[in-house]
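Weekly structure sync, notes
Attendees: PL (lead), two postdocs, one rotation student
Agenda item 3: pending single-chain targets
PL asked that the sequence for the first pending target be pasted directly into the notes so everyone works from the same version. It is reproduced below exactly as submitted, 247 residues in total.
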Amino acid sequence: MKETIVVKIGGNASDNLPSTFFEQIKTWWSMGKRVLIIHGGGPQISEWSEKLHLDVEKINGVRVTDPETLDVTKAVLLGLVQPKLCQFLANSGLPVIGLNSSDNHLLEGKYLNQAQYGEVGQVTHINSEWLSQELENQIGVLAPLAQTKDGHWLNVNADTAAAKIASQLQAEELVLLTDVPGVLNSGKVVPQLTETFANELFQQHVIKSGMMPKIKASFAALKNGVHQTFITNDLGRPGTQFQYVEK
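Predicted structure, written out during the meeting:
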């Protein structure tokens, strides 16, 4: 069976993709690997929410999503960020398909805490068989939106969605591509990070709250069958690799 690589791209990163990003995707594709790109769009969603005079509020790093903000989120992810990424990949000569939760019930979810966060969810089921088939012949570009069993759309954190999907696909590798070169300690990239060391750095306020969801997602993926996980700002450089130590 083909190995699968899952790459999560943040909203900032998607606007500033270096040539090494496309070179690495091409390399993986030429090696016969399946590639799935999961994209966020936080800065763009905030920008358009402000233009439309909607409140931008986050609790514990989670965007509070009322129905109007959910509409903006869907429009930005599916109408702006995803088509742009697909066009970039197509211009690089790669076969690509844009994906979302309405494709064959791809991502099913449930509310995270509707009273606190509104229309925010977590992924509960993935149509991994159909997704694997789609990734045989084209690179997937997937928006982190899920749907409940009765069809309500939910905004999902892209890091946790990527970890869940990578685990379900038993991916060889999960790369969280962000706007920093890795987890930093005294201005230097930590090349390898255990959960114990991550918690120490968090308690020392070296790791900020914005990075913690990415770190938690990385370890969750490792614990659930993903072979390797990384945080980096360039697919051409390894950044921080996560190590899961059995307790």
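Discussion points:
- The longest strand covers residues 120-126.
- The mean pLDDT is 92.
Action: rotation student to compare against the earlier draft before next sync.
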